[in-house]
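Open question from group meeting: does this chain pack into something compact, or does most of it stay loose? Before anyone orders reagents, we agreed to write out a predicted structure and look at it together. Recording both the input and the output here so the notebook holds the full record.
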Amino acid sequence: MLIRYKKTFEKIAMGLLSFMPEEKDVKKLQQTIKEYETNEDWQLFLWKDEDILGAVGVRLEDEERAVIQHVTVNPSHRNMGIGKKMVQGVRGFYRDQYHVCADEATSAFLEKCCAANSDATSAEA
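Structure tokens returned:
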């Protein structure tokens, strides 16, 4: 289930975001978390089953685009469809208000999610 980030999840969110290559530096990671906490155009969501297993970050632009800029899953839970579920959750959350798209860091993953969706749709037809 996709839940909104709260300050009480800060350490978990920082741990998850640290798996992103561009977020390895602690100061950069702290700045990113602070941006999610203070900038209303930056939204961070966490994926929770029994535990919090992933994070997806969105930057709202021009009142028309929701840009997915972070997608990360706990390494021991990868390749289980969690990242895809998070992207689908974000698309569902913003579907009536924004066009959801990727930035440079997440474009390959979002393309993979879209390809998997069209493969599943083709198989059902």
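Observations to bring back to the group:
The longest strand covers residues 52-61.
The longest helix spans residues 107-124.
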